[in-house]
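Worked example (supplementary).
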Amino acid sequence: MPDLRVLLKDELNKRVLLLGNEAIVRGILESGISVVTTYPGTPASEIGDTMAEIGKEAGVYMEYSTNEIVAVEVAAGAANCGVRALTAMKHVGLNVAADAVMTLAYVGVKGGYVIVTADDPECYSSQNEQDSRYYALLSNLPCLEPSDPQEAKEMVKAAIEMSEKLGLPVLLRTTTRVNHTRAPVTYGKLQKPNLKGDFVRDLKRMVMIPAFARPQHISLLEKVEKAKEISEQSLFNKIARKGKSEYGIISSSSAYNYAIEAADLLGLDANILKLGMTHPLPEKMIGQFLKVHKKIIIVEELEPILEMQIKAIAKDHAPSTEIHGKMSKQYFSRKGELSTRTVAEGIAEITGKKLSADFQRINKAYAAIASELPARPPILCAGCPHRASFFIIKRVGGEKAVYSTDIGCYALGTAPPLGVGDLLICMGSSISTAQGINRATGRNTIATLGDSTFFHAAIPGLVNAVYNNAKVTLIVLDNVTTAMTGHQPHPGTGITGMGSPAERISIEKIAEACGVKYVGVVNPFKLKEAETALKEALQHDGPSVLVFRAPCTLIDVREKRRKGLKIVPCKIADKCTNCMTCIKLLGCPALIVEAGKARISASLCTGCGLCVAVCPFKAIEGGSD
Amino acid sequence: MKEFNIVLAGVGGQGTILAAEILGTAAVKDGLNVRVSEIHGMAQRGGAVTSNVRIGENVASPTVIEEQADVLLGFEPLETLRNLRFVSERTLVIISDEKVPPAELAAKNKAYPSMEEIVEKVCSFTKNVAIVETEKLATEVGNILTRNVVLIGALAASGKLPLKKVSLIQALRELVPAKHVETNVRAFNLGYEYTKKKIR
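After joint prediction of all chains, the assembly is encoded as:
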């Protein structure tokens, strides 16, 4: 990783390779934004992490908020004091924040406010692949969609200006291929952040009781009309390429990159209208584009949101123009991410142009190889405390218990051989779904979720369990960090995003304060203790909470190395009978088979000792306990 | 050069992201347009990962499509095979000998295929295959964690890469932690020399 302080350099026109998320941070610094709030989530995490790294030096306040709605509310408060703010989240975070966003649209802002929502087509690291652009239509907020890091930076600046001009928050909707693409970015001028705001009472605008909300709705609709004019003039909406074909292509976001390359691949010399401001759409500009083409191809990822609106525009402006995309016939898929290949295949089908590559032949040749390859899904790391936790949970709960799980690394515990995780919906869902399952079946229900997820979304569910006396067991898999997204701090870690010491909020005390009568804390690597505690918890008449606490192995190993401590891997002794119990029970990546024999990879093993404990022949040596 | 496409294939934790970043940074130093794409988050946890590096004036998409790789840089032999759809007969495939057995092999009590078997499969797509003994070379350097940088050195020596060696080394110096810079430069040079000798 480069020194992120390169982002602080006030060198106009400097050209640097930046990750999309780093480019967004540079946009923050070039816009005079002084408050950044976030909850980590792939693919948006590095926006917050980069701010955490350089925020102090840049004079920008950043915080990891407990969840996305809190993040939006904190920033909305600041922006209504006239300071510039930004909140970053992954797409599903916007669902959590939606309650605030929908009415903040009525209230509006004084200082510019940008909400970054990062979609994840293909679910690389997500539970769904929703298209967040619907939120722009739902909330009436303007929406900008960059297609690369440079544009992402420019759009942060444009969004802040637009936000102040309209008095509205602006959505910046990215996708994984923007957030996690590195590209050359040219610097603009830095703008000093101004954290000094002023709160001026304005009840009719800011207190959304019904009497005030009704006129504010009208005000919002007027703002949308103004935003439309901005969209017509926006430099982000433009003919990106001129051509002579009867076809015209309209595209936005990452899909634009594929569209332009696909047109090249097919030798389609078409006009390409690139839309960067996709809500509200520039109706006149699009109407004109439709008029001058007999046939239109709309290339967009996920939902046909442009297509629906453009078809409506066509009815008024160019009713005889043919429009192809993914609605009447699906030339492009509504699921997963697009690629230059899939877009070229779609365009070829529409236009009758021939592809030079024979993708069917390639598919066939590759399928022959792929069918023989062992799968390599992501798995819990060697030494991960969750492996010990799931081992115990399965041993106690067996096949009869139902296991609701949650969003985090521990979702990987669903896979065999651990096999703990029967229902997973969203952040915090485990504790609440467990209650419904228990009501409906009377079976033991064990909910597992992580420490950061506990603070994010589990507390109302836990209160519900106590209030309605649900007989469920919640196990908080506390690895003292937000592991999956890159080890961000959270309210239980005792440190803030900007590195200041903070009150360490105790999960077990919260559980007790919620009225849970059985609360325990154990280290899952102490198998016997943990097993006894879980048995007791399951017998408890009412909700019970167990905190399985052991640090994330990645941090633990890093800390040990820093302190000069040696990591001593476990070893398989000669008396090993090759019964493979360790492999069958644990699925640890450090346990491998070589020449038909179980072996421990010395480079992967952290010496956690879990395999030592499960070996029926006591043939594994080592381990810290 | 119209465009130059590199697919980097490996397992989360092997350093493919850093390697791709070195290539991308060197491209910017050489004044070229470049797109580097990578996958973070859940997929990284010991799972199969790929990064793409695309260099060229008109490159817009960050991802390489089927058969369009100029180089497939395999950080792990099985993962090299998993990405053969990006390979055509003109592609150069460079494979590190760093085997990371997937858990499925252990669970099914199956052996990891031999390098001969791996190379044979690659050869059904392209004859341009090179194996780099990164374990031996990184051990020689004195830090087994430099295997990814050894591989970049090997790629630089192939003569195919449209990037200057000095830019690559400069990028490397900027991207690795200060205390490991010299070790990494040594790893790069060792990978480079090793491959130069092999080509001769």
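Two points are worth noting when inspecting this output. The longest helix of chain A spans residues 210-233. Chain A touches chain B through 69 residues (CB under 8 Å).
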